[in-house]
């Protein structure tokens, strides 16, 4: 059922003279894997899916399936199926006939198509729902039917366009679990677009971060969290600490003082970014502290809290840290901060010069 999908240099310009909606996007999706394209609204995520599905033609670049160039191949012959944010079910058909639709279009006899529809309804945990009218379903049930309909087409690549974003938190978690189970049973190749890092983390083997139509970085999400290639990647993944400074001989110097870096970084201007969960809050007199400051804001996040610590130096220089579960710190409290060397990352300042090296943004097969 699965196939290797290769997107090479995809570019889409909607009107002459306008900025590209997608600019030189390259991504390998190994057979049987799930890769998420992650980005904010307007970043070009849906353009990637539309070009892959054949719903739009690229201005440049190619879409290949197991090495075959799909240029000129219509959507219905690409061996792909897409699930959209809205289920787009046929309201006048039963649940069973919605799922059987793809088979009927392919000429499968009605009885066999309906039998297969029941099999796929069972896979999405809707056994016994076949006779119900589609308009009588809840939002979560509608999306399960849309997923069953897509799978019944036996696609070699399953395309998911933020299909769970309209669901509440509990239903979204259920759909994540369902998709994980379907991957174990059917081993499909999945290309997912989402704006939610948590969803990408729950579903995908690897993530490609897209911003302004350009691929910023790709790889396992843990790697992107730990070593973002740009401010855009850091911000999209929830990074808030950004301290401008200068790198020289492997040391970043800023309002935080000189901080050694864990690996080689080119000399010159650079912004230090550190994940809040990596920062340890300690007493202001602790000799292990890398910097001292004052808590100026507390943000609740479930059982944990995030504290914003103002440090000496230019106005606005701050570090965000995540406290241990149940730990409390009031605003105004002086603290010390430990920034582990391995958690320190320097990215280019924002601007055209900060565009990442495309060579860093390829997901290799295997």
From TrEMBL:
One of its GO terms (molecular function) is ATP binding. GO terms for cellular component: ATP-binding cassette (ABC) transporter complex. Residues 5-237 form the ABC transporter domain. Its EC number is 7.6.2.9. Keywords: ATP-binding, Nucleotide-binding, Transport. This is ABC-type quaternary amine transporter. The lineage of its organism: Bacteria, Bacillati, Actinomycetota, Actinomycetes, Geodermatophilales.
